Amino acid sequence: MNKVAIVTGVNGQDGSYLSELLLEKGYTVVGLRRRSSSEKGLERIEHLLNNKNFKLVEADITDSGCVNGLFQEFMPDEVYNLAAQSHVGTSFKQPSYTCQVNIQGPINFLESIRLVSPSTKFYQASTSEMFGKNYEQMGNTKYQRETTAFVPQSPYAVAKLAAHEMVRIYRDSYGLFACCGILFNHESERRGENFVTRKITKWIGEFYHWKNQIDSQLHDNETDNDYILKISSELLGGDNRVTEKFPKLRLGNLNAHRDWGHAQDYVDAMYRMLQQNTPEDYVIATSETYSVRDFLTEAFNEIGIKNFEPYVVIDPEFYRPCEVDWLLGNTTKARKQLGWRPKITFQELVQRMVRSDIDAARKTKLERSSI
Ligand code: NAP
Ligand code: GDD
């Protein structure tokens, strides 16, 4: 008999990668997706829909009756709770909603497990955002680990911390196998478009094709010398065309540091946590940190632009009321106990995201031109 895993947030970034991994390992995956008025939003899992071991089920994690029904119907061996209002900036504008989904959701699962299926193992998607302002320091290195105190800086982080503590309470009080992955930022070609990394690479993908088109227009009927003179004044110097015909990239704080890994590596850590003999919480990170500015530099380099500044506008709209300035995870525990380590480097991550968005923009352009 296949093991059965429920994956909430299955059509999100992590849900899609985790489902692939579990299917490869021979699981039956019950993927939960909340109701939507359109079929859009299944792009990340389209390739799984015909897999006989994958079942897509409509469910909202804030509905306790609905969650309870899932246990009666599927009796899962493992539950991975990835569903959340996951955008930190949005949580300042929708704090109550964020709490409802990010706290009530996991409580519904913990209660159902306690009452209906106490042997089910539970994974909760906790976050490095819970550390907020806080870090420890050794020499010049500032870092966070499992025992670093949490000082959350957003409604999102407060809600995630409440869920994190609930998991601990259910584990200690009722002996459930329930644990949390304290995951640092992880991105991918499937990252949501309003997170900073994907916002940058999506813009670059579209800009790349626009720039190529401008380059070829400028080149037509001109000598090479004329071309070189023109492109340097139009694109790199005065930059008028960038302003007038292609909107600049609007961003907020470029100085925040994040420990960015690839989501494919991180879902493997989630799986490993539920295969242990005892439930424990783990920090999952690359242990390297880069600023948003570093990410920009690396991403623009991919299309041969050394200085991103002429293309970027700092827009206060994207600043947060409270910021998390520094994240760098110490993964000693995960490396030792889970045998986990990330395989994809920061540079590979950026390269994969930029290349994927260049391809995606090319396809969109072709589709448009064939209409
Ligand atoms: P994501 O792409 O935003 O996916 C979140 C998923 O949750 C989406 O599929 C969303 O559905 C679903 N969802 C939201 N509210 C729901 C509800 N009430 N009922 C059912 N489903 C609901 O997020 P992600 O990057 O994959 O992250 C997965 C989890 O890890 C989240 O809990 C996030 O907070 C946490 N986390 C992420 C990171 C990171 O860097 N990626 C780091 C630490 C922790 P719709 O598509 O309909 O909105
Ligand atoms: N989203 C966004 N948009 N962020 C921007 C922008 C912008 O235009 N400009 C600058 N930033 C800065 C943010 O202020 C933040 O310091 C940093 O870029 C990263 O922002 P996000 O990509 O939105 O990610 P996050 O770190 O706030 O949250 C992500 O990681 C958490 C783990 O630490 C999310 O995936 C959370 O769900 C996750 O828990």
What is the helix tally? 12
Give, in spatial order, the strands making up the sheet with the most strands.
3-2-1-4-5-8-13
Termini, distance in Å? Answer: 49 Å
Structural class: alpha/beta
Largest sheet: 7 strands, parallel
The whole-number mean of residue pLDDT values reads 93
- CA-atom Rg in angstroms: 22 Å
Distinct ligands: NADP nicotinamide-adenine-dinucleotide phosphate, guanosine-5'-diphosphate-alpha-D-mannose
Number of strands: 15
**Would you list the SSEs in sequence order as H and E?**
EHEEHEHHEEEHEEHHHEEEHEEHEHH
Percent of residues in helices: 40-55%
Question: Which segments are poorly predicted (pLDDT under 50) over 5 or more consecutive residues?
Answer: 236-244
Q: Per DSSP, what share of the residues sits in E-state strands of 2 or more residues?
A: 15-25%
Can you tell me the overall shape? globular
Write a structural description:
This protein has helices spanning 13-24, 64-74, 88-93, 95-116, 155-174, 196-219, 224-237, 240-245, 263-274, 292-301, 332-338, 346-369; strands spanning 4-8, 28-33, 54-58, 78-81, 121-127, 136-138, 141-143, 178-183, 186-187, 249-251, 257-258, 261-262, 282-284, 290-291, 312-314. The termini are far apart. The chain contains 12 helices and 15 strands. The radius of gyration is 22 Å and the shape is globular. The chain is α/β, with parallel strands linked by helices. Bound molecules: NADP nicotinamide-adenine-dinucleotide phosphate (NAP) and guanosine-5'-diphosphate-alpha-D-mannose. Guanosine-5'-diphosphate-alpha-D-mannose binds at residues 86, 88-89, 127-129, 184-185, 194-196, 199, 251-253, 256, 258, 292, 318, 320, 323, 327.
